[in-house]
Amino acid sequence: MSFESKLHHYPNILIVVVDCLRADYCPVQSDSRLRAWPKLVSRGTTFTQMISSASTTPVCFGSLLTGQYSFVHGIQTMLSGKRLNEDVQTLPATLKQLGYSTYAYVTGPLDPCFGLAKGFDVYEHRVRAKTIYTEWGQSFINTFRERHSQEPTFVLLHCFELHTPRVLNGLRAPKNSELEYDLAWRQLDARIEELLEQIEENTIVILTADHGERIRRRSDRFWWGHLYRKLRESLGRPCRPDDFRRHSFHVFEELIHIPCAIAGPGIPEGTVIRDQVRQIDLMPTILDLLDRQPLPPTHGQTLAPVLHGKQLPVEPAYIQSGRSDSLRDWHGLRTEKWKYAERPRDKRDLDCCPMLFDLIADPHERHNVVRKYPEVALRLRHQLDELLHNSQQASKHPGQEMSPEEQERLTEQLRSLGYL
User: Fold this and answer.
1) Percentage of the chain exceeding pLDDT 90
2) Inside any domain, residue 267
3) What is the largest CA-CA distance in the chain?
4) What is the mean pLDDT of residues 173-202?
5) What whole-number distance in Å separates Cα of residue 126 and Cα of residue 109?
6) What residue numbers bound the domain in which 356 lies?
7) For 105-117, how does the pLDDT look when each residue is reduced to its tens digit (9 = 90+)?
8) Which residues pair with 261 in a beta bridge?
9) Mind giving me the DSSP string for 135-170?
10) Assigned domain for 234 exists
11) Per DSSP, what are the bridge partners of residue 157?
12) What is the mean pLDDT of residues 45-51?
């Protein structure tokens, strides 16, 4: 369903992005422990195979707001010193041209120096202490309808309460455990329900994540992982960066498989889409629902036809870790069956073995089958090379440089958040 071009016929748009929200904690079946998520599932359409562009927040928000991958929108890591490509079309800037009032309420690493404020009338970057449970959060919920009463309005809310150290509001659970994560998400979900109660009926609501989260060490899946960790601890060796029990950066499923539910006018109710879709598809989908199209070329494709039962070609998803440490930086392609990942060709050492996982036979990615299916790995590698080559040829300015002052401020901010 598209909307008339008259301003008062455009729907309001609310996007709630929960930092580090995993897809497996957002079931499509009824779950009495959650409140906001099940209501959106029943009132709208849920995508069970939404794939984020990276496991790094600024990179993901760049893709969410532009429909482009990082090598075009310009933000490829948190410490690259690059800001959003000024030539790239953004969702808020486009909505503003249609008469929308545009607001962003963000926190964590989403400093304005990344250029993500482009097109927003208000880009409020709050300190981490101002959670949705504090006076700031209660005021935001209480005045949401009044503050954004002028139509049409676009609001982007970024929630950081699931990110380590998680906010439990007095409850206790082992650090970085599944119980701690579950408790934090259930409390946040209940708070989001209070917000949803304040929205106007004529509102498209999207609840999603920037990326997922690794709750346990990857090696915890194997008996030898426990043994190896105990041995390192007994010898007084520090934890390896890829093995630490906090937020992590890679391209494994728990980090790039995210939830997404869309509800509102024109959105089918109680529908579940199980085909692979991508974070970059959200921006063109929103514009299509408004009878507008993003400027070509764009990596994302509209999902509006899928919402009404039509088939679209399932496109592979480009994925990257977005690590500032180039030695551990991975990128690749994900399809519904395969995931191919490698370290960027010009940075990897000769002994680095690419990874290939059969996601249907091996959903937990325990077995690298790159040597068993070399023809599949070669095909996906060629597709990856073609995507990167064509996109880099089309992008003249892949990210502008931050000023020295901006880089210094960002470094201090990331240090305070525990990234450095």
Assistant:
1) 66
2) yes
3) 69
4) 94
5) 10
6) 318-416
7) 999 999 999 999 9
8) 46, 207
9) HHHHHHHHTHHHHT-SSSEEEEEEE-TTSSSPP-TT
10) no
11) 16, 105
12) 97
Give the residue with greater pLDDT, 4 vs 11: 11
Query: What three-state secondary structure class fits 282?
Result: helix
Strand residues in 230-316 grouped as ranges (E): 257-263, 271-278
pLDDT band at 2 (very low <50, low <70, confident <90, very high): very low
Residue 247 pLDDT: 58
Q: Which residues in 330-351 are b (16+ Cβ under 10 Å) and which e?
A: bbbbbbeebbbbbbeeeebeee
Bond into 58 cis (ω within 30)? no
Strands 82-83 and 400-401, bridge-based pairing: antiparallel
Residue 54, beta-bridge partner list: 320
* 406 and 113 Cβ atoms separated by less than 8 Å: yes
Contact 15, 148 (CB under 8 A): no
User: What is residue 213's three-state secondary structure?
Assistant: coil
Residues with Cβ within 8 Å of residue 32, at least 6 apart in sequence: none
Please check whether residues 90 and 192 belong to one and the same domain: yes
Count of CB atoms situated within 10 Å of the CB of 279: 27
Q: Quote the pLDDT of residue 348.
A: 45
Q: What is the average per-residue pLDDT within 58-84?
A: 92
Question: What was the pLDDT predicted at 240?
Answer: 43
Shared domain check, 173 and 110 = yes
Strands (E), 160-233: 203-209
The answer to the question of residue 348 being in a domain is yes
pTM assigned to the model = 0.90
Backbone phi and psi for residue 34, each to the nearest 5 degrees, phi listed first:
-110, 160
Asked if the structure places residue 235 within a domain, the reply is no
C-alpha to C-alpha distance for 388 and 383, rounded to whole angstroms: 9
Task: Please give the mean pLDDT across all residues of the chain.
Answer: 87
Sign of the Cα pseudo-torsion (401, 326, 181, 41, in order): positive
Tokens of 87: 């030539």
